[in-house]
Amino acid sequence: AGAETVKRAVELDLASRFQESLVCYQEGIDLLLQVVKGTERWARGGLAALTWELRRDLFFSDGKYHKQIRIEENATGFGYEKLFQEYLSEIVSEVWVEDPYIRHVHQASRCSLYNFLRFCELLVKGPCKVKTIHLLTSYDEGSGRSQQISGLEEIQQSLRNYGVTLNIAFSSSIHDREIRFNNGWMIKIGRGLDYFKKPQGRFSIGYCDFDLRPCHETTVDVFHTKHTKKM
């Protein structure tokens, strides 16, 4: 676990994601040191019953360090509830979404506006009490810009009916994909919200239920801002 975490830290470092890489370096070094200490205890006949995977889970459950989820190609069971529900506590009232591709509706394989709508539905259902959602994305580069804007405005109006304000901003230089909650959790998905594969048809299993839809391969990194430092 320690070696894998340090490897991930190097990947993040090379991608200039210094804030996250620092957390991974910290966790990886700590885990490696724990292995050394554990080995010494075993040599002395001491107890070391917990596996290092369990130790990592215990660290993470305490809001420390970082958690990583690897979604394999064609894997199922990774709907938005699976990824986000445990971080949506009742104190969550504000959400930030940064994703440059919340814009496509004309390509069935990249219906990111619909994915964003599904994510908003998750926030509306609770148990969190979200009042404000901030979306930072980029304009559609083709003829779909007007459709993108009208779709976002429709989502904005619909959320208003539930007492939720959607603030929309556009940037031509945005590249990272991340979602942040005001309880401190930050989730980075390699493919953003659009990690699902195109359904076989409108009446095929998985079209409506994302838990049943195959996924593209991607990596999900979860951090808590309490344990990250601005570089």
CATH homologous superfamily label of the largest domain = MITD, C-terminal phospholipase D-like domain
Structural class: alpha/beta
CATH structural fold name of the largest domain? Endonuclease, Chain A
Number of helices: 6
Number of strands: 7
Strand order of the largest sheet: 1-7-6-5-2-3-4
Task: Estimate what percentage of residues fall within beta strands.
Answer: 15-25%
Shape: globular
Largest sheet, in brief, is: 7 strands, mixed
- CATH class division of the largest domain: Alpha Beta
Helical content class: 25-40%
Radius of gyration: 20 Å
Distance between the termini: 25 Å
Characterization of this structure:
InterPro entries: MIT_dom_sf, MIT_domain_contain_protein1, MITD1_C, MITD1_C_sf. One of its GO terms (cellular component) is midbody. There is one protein chain. With 231 residues, this protein is an alpha/beta fold. It has 2 domains: 58 residues, Methane Monooxygenase Hydroxylase, Chain G, domain 1; 159 residues, MITD, C-terminal phospholipase D-like domain (Endonuclease, Chain A). It contains 6 helices and 7 strands, in the order H-H-H-E-H-E-H-E-H-E-E-E-E. It is globular, with a radius of gyration of 20 Å. The relative contact order is 0.17. About 9% of the residues have low confidence.
